[in-house]
Amino acid sequence: MAHGSGSPLVSVNSIGEDDDTMSSFSQRLKACTKGTVYSSVFTLLTSCVGAGTLSLPYAFSQGGLVLSSVVFFAVMMVAVLVGFMLFSGKRYCAEVFPEKEVWGYEDLAHAAFGAVGKIAVLATLALLLFLALIAYMIYARDQLNLVVQFIISRTGYVPDCSPLVNCALLMAIGFLPIFPITLLRDLTRMQITSTISILCISYVALVATIKTSMAWVDFHKDTNDTIHNAIPPNWRDSVKLGPRHFSGVLTVISYCSLSFICHFNLLPVQKELQNPTKRRLNIIVIASMATAYVLYNIVIFMAYFNFFDDTREDFMLNYSRYDILVTTARAALFFTLLFGYPVLLHPTRASLNHLLSLLYDLVVKRKSRRSGLVSSSVDPEESKRLLPETDSRKSENERVPTWMWFCETLILFGASFLPASFIPNVGYVWNFVGSIGGVLVLYIYPPAFYLRLRYLRYVSRSRLQKNVTIRSQYDYYAVYKEAVAVIVLILGGVLLFLTNYQAVDAVINREHQPSNLCFQTHCGHHIT
C-alpha cells in the first residue's frame, strides 16, 4: 500500500510467474493486455492506492486545508519528476554498463553505488514492507472490531461486554486462518487482490461521498444519534487553513509522500512495456499519479468536510458502528486487507532472503580474498559490481529449504502480529513508514541514483573521447534536471531528519489517542 500502500512496493515480477499453460481466462486476458499503456498505468495505480488512503483525511486535518492541498500537489509533482529521473538513470546505466541488465530498483542502486547501494535499498525495502505488514494488521483489526460489534448489537447484546472485541482475540480470529496462504511460494493467483483493493477503495470513496452528502443535506444529527455524522453549526470555525503546530506540516508531508510510492515498480513496468519510448513512459507516470491524485482528493475532501478537526487516523472509525452502509465498507476493507497481507508478506520475505544472500556472498568473497583463493589483481571497483542480478530472486526463493521457509514466515507473521495486537493507533506505525520509506524512496534514492549515473556516463564518455567537449542540446537541458535532482536530494535529507524526529516524539509523548474500541470497551459504557 502500501503500498498509499495497497501493495505499494510489490514488484510485478516478485510474486510469481504466470502458468505456462495459460489455462485460465484471467491469465489469457493478462497475456493480451500485458505491456500496454493501460495495463502499466493500472499496475502503478494499484501500487499507490491502498489502505494508506484511510489516513490522508487525518493528515489534512493536521496540516490545514490550504497548506495540505499545496503540499499534496507538490508531492505529486515530485513523484512524477522522480519517475522521470529513474528512467533517465536507467538509460545512463545502459550506456555506462551495457552488459548489465536492470530488472528493478535495487539493480539501479547497484549500478550507481555498487554493493553498498544495493544493500541499502534492500534493507530499506525490507523494513518498509515489514512496517506496512504491521499497519495492514492494525487497519484490518480496526475494521473487524467494528464489524463484530455491529453483528453483536444486532443480537441484542451489549458489544462492549463481549470478549469478541478483545484486540488479541480479534487478530487471532482474523489472521490465523490465512497463515497457510503465507507459506505458498507462488502467489500468482493472489495478484487479483490488487484489483480488488482499487475497487474497495473506490467503494469507500463512494460511501464517504454518500455519507457526507447526507450529513450536509440533513445538517443535523442522523437517525443513529451519532455526533460524528452531523455537521456542526459552527463548521466554518472548524475549517483550518493552516497547521496549528509545525508537526502538522511534517505529518502532511510524511503521509502524502507515502501515498505516491510506486517507484519500485517503474522499472519492471518499463521492462514489460511494448515499445517503451520516452513519451509513452512519461504518459504512464503522469497518468498514474494524476489518477491516484484525483481518487485521493475525493476521499480526503468527503471525509474532511464531514469530521473536520475530529478526523481520526483511520477516518472509517469516525462513523457510527451501527451504520449498515458503513459496515459493508468496513467488511470489504477487512477482507481486502486480510488477503492482501500474504501478497505483502511475500516480497518482504523475498527482500530479506535477497539481502541475506547478498551479505553472505560478500562475506564469503572477502574471506576468500584474504585467504588467497581469489586473485588480488582484480580491480575492487569492478569486483564490487560482479554480484548476482535481481533476476535471480525467484531461484533464491526456490533454493530456500522448506524448514527455513516455514521459520522465516512464522517469524515475520509473529513479529507483525504481536505489535499489531497492542499498538493502539495505526498512526504510530504510519508515521515511521512515511518518514523512513516515503522520504528515502521518493526524495533521496532516485535523485542520488540519477546524479551518480549521470556522472559515471560523463566519465565514461570522457575516456572514450579525450580532449572533446561533450555538450549536446540535451545535455544543456539536463543541467536543469541536475539542479532539480540536487534540490530534491537536499530536501530529502532535511525531511528524513525532521519526520523521523517527529515520529519518535509522537511515540514518546503518546500524541495519538487509542483509535480502536477494543482498547477502551467497558460493560455498560456506550461508545458511538
- Approximately what portion of the residues adopt beta-strand conformation? under 5%
Distance between the termini: 29 Å
Counting DSSP H or I runs of 4 or more residues, the number of helices is 18
Strand and helix order: HHHHHHHHHHHHHHHHHH
Query: Gyration radius, to the nearest Å?
Result: 24 Å
The main pleated sheet reads as: none
Spatial shape: globular
Count of distinct strands: 0
What share of residues is helical? 55-70%
Low-confidence stretches: 7-32, 222-228, 373-395, 470-474, 520-528
The whole-number mean of residue pLDDT values reads 78
* SSE class: mainly alpha
Keyword list:
0% strand, mainly alpha, 528 residues
Summarize the structure.
This protein is mainly alpha-helical and 528 residues long. 68% of the residues lie in helices and 0% in strands.
Tell me what the structure shows.
It is a single chain. The chain is mainly α and 528 residues long. It has helices at residues 25-33, 37-48, 56-63, 65-96, 105-154, 167-175, 179-182, 192-218, 235-238, 246-259, 266-272, 278-307, 324-370, 380-383, 393-399, 402-422, 426-464, 473-509. Helix 3 packs antiparallel against helix 10 (246-259), helix 4 packs across helix 10 (246-259) and helix 8 runs antiparallel to helix 13 (324-370). The chain is globular, with a radius of gyration of 24 Å. The chain starts with 24 loop residues before the first helix and ends in a 19-residue tail after the last helix.
Question: How are the SSEs ordered, and which strands pair?
Answer:
Elements: H1 25-33, H2 37-48, H3 56-63, H4 65-96, H5 105-154, H6 167-175, H7 179-182, H8 192-218, H9 235-238, H10 246-259, H11 266-272, H12 278-307, H13 324-370, H14 380-383, H15 393-399, H16 402-422, H17 426-464, H18 473-509
Helix pairs in contact: 2-8, 2-12, 3-4, 3-10, 3-12, 4-10, 4-12, 4-17, 5-6, 5-13, 5-16, 5-17, 8-12, 8-13, 10-17, 10-18, 17-18
